[in-house]
Predict the 3D structure of the following.
Amino acid sequence: MWSPIIISLEVAGAATVLAFFLGLLAAWKTVKLRRLKAVFDALFTLPMVLPPTVIGFFLLLIFGRNGLIGNWLADVGLPIVFSVRGAIIAATVVAFPLMYRTARGAFESLDRDLVAAARVCGASETLIFWQIIVPTCRPGIASGTVLAFARALGEFGATSMLAGNIPGRTQTMSLAIYSAVQSNERGTAYAWIVVIMLISLGTLALINFFER
C-alpha cells in the first residue's frame, strides 16, 4: 500500500535533481545569449504550456520501442516504456520549465559587477558560476527547485502514457488516485488526496520560506 508514496518520492526526487542541473545550465546559457534568445526561451518553456498528453506522445515517439533512442536503450537493457525510468523522464520534462524560468529570472536580476570583479581576480567561469552566481541567486533557485519537485510529484498525463499505471512498479500517487476513482474506491482516493495535499502544503511553506 505504500508503493505509490515510495515511487512518487523516488520519481519526483530524481526528476528534481535532473531538472535542477539542466534548468540552471539552460537558464544561464540563455541569459548570456545575444542572438536567438527568444527561440531558445520558447523551446525551453514549451513543456509548460503543452498538454501533458501531448508531451507524453512526443516522449513515446522518442523513447518508445519503435523510436531510435528507445530501441537502442531497450537493446542495451534499459527500456524506458513501462518503467520507473520512463516516469522519471516524463516528470523531468514537465518540471524543467519551472526550474528554468525561475532560475532565469534570478540570473537576470544578478548584479553583473560581482561577475566582472571575479573575472578580474582571475576566477574561472566554473568557479564564478558555482561559488558566486548560484549562492547569490539562492532564494530564486531554491524556490524553483521546490516548484519543480511539486510539479514532478503531481505529474499524471505524460507519466501514464510513457510509464503506464502498473501497481507496485510505476503507479505514483496521482495514478493511484485515478485508479481508485475508476474502481469506485472512494476511501482510497480520499486517503491519497490527503497525502498529496499535505505534501503540497509543505511545499508551499518551503517556497514562502525561501522567498523570505
About this structure: Residues 109 and 137 are 8 Å apart (CA to CA). The first helix runs from residue 3 to 32. Residues 3-211 form a domain with the MetI-like fold fold (CATH 1.10.3720.10).
